[in-house]
Write a structure and sequence with these properties.
This protein has one domain: Response regulator (Rossmann fold), CATH 3.40.50.2300. By secondary structure, it is of the alpha/beta class. Helix content is about 35%, strand content about 15%.
Length: about 140
């Protein structure tokens, strides 16, 4: 997350609980998962599942009722590219919003082609996170492709 000098104040509407939103955070670095979970709480998303391994996260999707995923791209084993490819290939999750989270410039340039719904550059602000959620959640329709 960017330093507090670049963050806008969080409004009351940002803090309203969003019980219908369940997020999955996939990142091999525990501090990155904790920061993202904290930021999600700041925008009212209090139900967050955290996984450090993309294959384990994918295997746990069945019955998890998540409706937005945030994943790092650079990870050992299954990276974010493989993860989003597998999610998009699955009939039940092909329209699930998957947000790429990365600090690498090359990832910022090709996230759409890889199948991600949105991109957040590390470090990010709470305002940037909220904007991404506002963008991807209204477009999510829980239907088969």
């Amino acid at each position: 997350m960017k330093d507090s000098g670049s963050m806008r104040r969080t409004s009351k509407s940002d803090l309203q609980p969003k019980p219908e939103v369940r997020a999955l955070v996939v990142d091999d670095q525990s501090i990155a998962r904790l920061i993202l979970r904290s930021c999600l709480k700041n925008v009212g998303v209090h139900d967050t599942v955290m996984k450090e391994d993309a294959k384990e996260a994918f295997d746990g999707l069945e019955g998890s009722a998540v409706n937005v995923i945030f994943t790092d791209i650079q990870m050992p084993g299954w990276d974010g590219r493989r993860f989003v490819s597998e999610v998009r290939a699955h009939r039940s999750w092909c329209q699930l919003p998957v947000v790429a989270v990365s600090s690498l410039k090359e990832d910022e340039l090709n996230w759409r082609e890889l199948g991600f719904s949105a991109y957040m550059h590390k470090p990010f602000t709470v305002a940037e996170l909220k904007a991404v959620l506002d963008k991807v959640l209204p477009t999510y329709v829980a239907s088969a492709c």
